Fold these 4 entries.
Entry 1:
Amino acid sequence: MTATPPDQGISPARLHGEACIVCGSTEPPLHPNGTLTIEGETAGVVHDFETVVCTAHLELGHG
């Protein structure tokens, strides 16, 4: 999954697996969702983040 840079809408908590990547919930338990790849400002630089989803979004098919 590729996304826009964090200053364009993805909070640091969501990027660092501290909140649901879909809704921003921090209520435990949070479940692994996969790797989010974001292109850096420098050409050829990418950053990978392990994201999580809340139980509600896991039940909806995310993760």
Entry 2:
Amino acid sequence: MTAPTASLPGASLPGASLPGGGISETSSARIYLHPESGGESARGHDLLRLATAGSVDDGKSTLVGRLLHDTKSVLADQLAAVERASRDRGLDVTDLALLTDGLRAEREQGITIDVAYRYFSTATRSYVLADTPGHVQYTRNMVTGASTAELALILLDARHGLVEQTRRHLAVTGLLGVRHVALAVNKMDLVGWDEETYRRLAHAFSSLAADVGIEDVVAVPLSALLGDNVVDRSERTPWYAGPTLLEHLESVPVGTDPSAQPLRMPVQYVIRPRTATHPDYRGYAGRLASGVVRPGDEVVVLPSGRRTTVVGIDRGGRPGESDEQDVAFAPQSVVLRLADDIDISRGDLIAGGADAPAVTNSVTGTVAVVADRPLRARDRVLVRLGTRTVRGIVEALLDQLDITTMEHQSHPIALELNAIGRVRVRLAEPAPVDDYTHLRRTGSFLLIDEADGTTLAAGMAETDVDDTPL
């Protein structure tokens, strides 16, 4: 099957059509306060990846369960099992949190521990939802869940407002480059559906979001337990005219136009079948991290810097067969054939000839520590950049973000578990690196303990610093 050439996914994504009547603009957030709204969004069936985040007992698992239940994404036997479990616990209503808290420890403690991926769909959109933990000791799991998300769904308990974990989750969301945030002001039923409470929390949240560079925030007052403003509009909030949570998820823009980004393909495997039918075949397999490629395009192989031309694009078909393409675009997995026999191996990067990334022997970036042992200067690590792994040494801890004040403290002694800070790592050999704010996939990296393979930190590279280009 030949890939389309006239229209690529994301080539003309319409903006979200959100109710425009009486919208209060605070910083960059849209907070809906008045009783008039209008506009609809007509979109095709596409995919939205989102991650949930919230402090312990904010009702996150209940909200996810409510979304699954009210979108008819729960099988009858699953719902019956949850209803039985709720009755066994002496509850008067069905505890929809049991739909998502799958681990025994989660059900016993009533908290989320592991990242759980949930899948559901509506008539216009499919969803991959990463249900991440709320407790501070599991913040590293939130980093995992949000790393591929396009929208973060952050919960607040209307009674407690912004807490330290709210700040932490917003900081992680901003650092990971998640473009859209939906604020669920939950448990509004416990504050009497008070408009002023919603207004105050939405304004405080939007101000904090602006501090970490998040520009698109929509706040929704709701009750996950009762279902108000989750899927169906609530009669208890006549003062609120904005979208329900699901309406916002249906309309938020998704995807990136591949043609607007430079070509990047980390090489995963070199294919040399050496069979009677393909004695001289040489192809380079990988997943396009960004951009579009066509036969005839000039590319550069990094870190060597050798230039060549793409002469063919193959995609796997039936066993033993391939399907030659006229064009390929991110995030497709393809095999590229090149005009010249160049020494290319796993870990190399094939990039567009006109806009290749810098090759450097050091990486500076912000990291979130995900290991129990602290990260210190002079630590010897393995640095994973795409499919390339090189040895390195932590040259310096540049600063640490204070979650409470959102200020940076210079030159900490160590970065402990869940800490967020900037580091500089010297590489044993040169590697191509993009700026994370421009290209998430090729601008991210991992720091790994070279002794036992433990992942120490997840990082987001910066290229506008004084790293040494080669």
Entry 3:
Amino acid sequence: MARRHQEKGERMRIGEVAERAGVSTRALRYYEEQGLLSSERTPSGQRTYPESAVEKVQLIQQLFTAGLPSRTIVQLMPCIEAGVSSSEAFGLLAAERDRITAAMADLAAARDALDRVIDIAVHPTPEHCPALREPAWTPYRAAGSAPSEQRPALV
């Protein structure tokens, strides 16, 4: 089990931050890659984080859960870190809400279309199912032939 850092200023390794924040080390590396989180390196190259990284990672997780993409979270971070809001931040959040609302409408339309397909599959009609337009025992007609012209039987 990772040791707990009680002393102010002491740094944690990536595994301890991941464990305490409830994410994978891979997620922490991704957050760094996206500019959401930063670390320092030990002389041997290991990542270390301040105690505050745990809370920051949990906040990042909440923002991802709310449907925000990393590019938007990066834009919001200065306001979050400063503890102030701005009209730009509210604008970003409103735009993301509109994007999510539109995506929900698209998904609802896709679900409704799928419901119609399921209904047709459960209750096929000649209108929707070519195989039901003519019974299987209807004699075969060659393409372009008149209905009275029948193709000779194969022997």
Entry 4:
Amino acid sequence: MRVAYVSSDPGVPVFGRKGSSVHVQAVLRELVRGGAEVHVVTTRPGGDTPADLADVVVHEVAVAPTGSTAEREVALREADAQVDGVLAGIAAGGGLDLLYERYSLWGTAATAWASDAGVPSVLEVNAPLVVEQRTHRELVDEAGAERCARAAIGAATAVVAVSGPVAAWAADRAGGHPEKVHVLSNGVDTGRIVPAADRCGGRRDLTDSSRGRVHGRQGALHFGRDTSARRVRQVAPAFTVLFVGTLKPWHGLDVLVDAFAGLRARVPGARLLLVGDGPGRGDVLALAHERGVEGAVRATGAVRPADVVRHLHDADVAVAPYPPLDDFYFSPLKVYEYLAAGLPVVASAVGELPDTLEHGDAGVLVPPGDADALADALVALAHDADRRATLGARAREVAVERHDWSVVVRRALGFAGVPWAEPVDTPVAEPTNRVSTGSTNETRVSTGSTSEDRVSTSSTTGGGRHG
């Protein structure tokens, strides 16, 4: 099978480190694993090609340098116009069996070419980019961007949207065919991200310094020697709370720091690990200093996607502390990575996260923006190894069964009528040895099962927010 993957948004470096880049690489990886000959058409290849994607053929489309936003929009439309010829050239070398496009603000040529050529196409929509560009950046030709959205969505064989709100937005622009729009959340590579081997089923005991209050109830919590055969007694490292993502306000990092201060008051040995970077880093660390917990907070800075795994293995619980947001329409990659690592997850009950966490069976849900509730949930998990084990086990099951990228890609292609064989190297659920961390500088539509990071972008293109 020969596949063309199109990403004409320069805000999404195909081989970069952004959440959007991780998403692109994951889809490419599944296509390659399935035996496809993959051609990437992009305006921004990004960094070095990962070794397992070395056989992917990259076709770079140039974007003319510009000054103003209006000029930039014109240049991006002109760059998109080149895609037609690139696809024709690829097809001339042996035909094309599938076109897979990541929706971009000014992209119309790819799905139009596929429609004319009789090639099935999948358009992946990660955000309502017209709204996002207008609200969070700058958009001069909004009417033109709307026309592009309607043209791209209308010409696609199938449209997959990462959440219900995004699907509704796309269905309104589907040219009277909302039935071709499907909800399909982001995924995770459950073969690469596996639970740490020494998590002992999630039962990492706490040191004596962690005894204290739980949900306001005073009293010593005695973690003496357990003689049951199923529990492994060990001196555990400090209880570690993990956040992975871009350090920006809409991730609720102020709430997280306040909650962590509450956790430290009752679990003195607790630590907070922030994996990722962003413009909010200084504010987060300043707030930690103000709350008196800066010595227990570690911020790694930006890390390569491949290095996230070792930080997942250093955690006891992972958080997605989103504040109340009117436009929570994304599908957070971080949450699926947490699940795949077999970590207990504490997340805000916003958007589709309650469904993702099975309304409490695969994670703990707290009211968005409520630092006290988040702190209470973390304290309770700190003192309940069995609960952590139960949540972590179910989290892993959910990741493998519903959110592995092989499942996501197969369903996406199926919506377009393209059969897809199971990859040869199917995901495995076995844990890996724990890896020590080091300093390193993230209408009606068909529905399906439902990673952010919200990304910084150029002034005229977005690529979508990734929780």
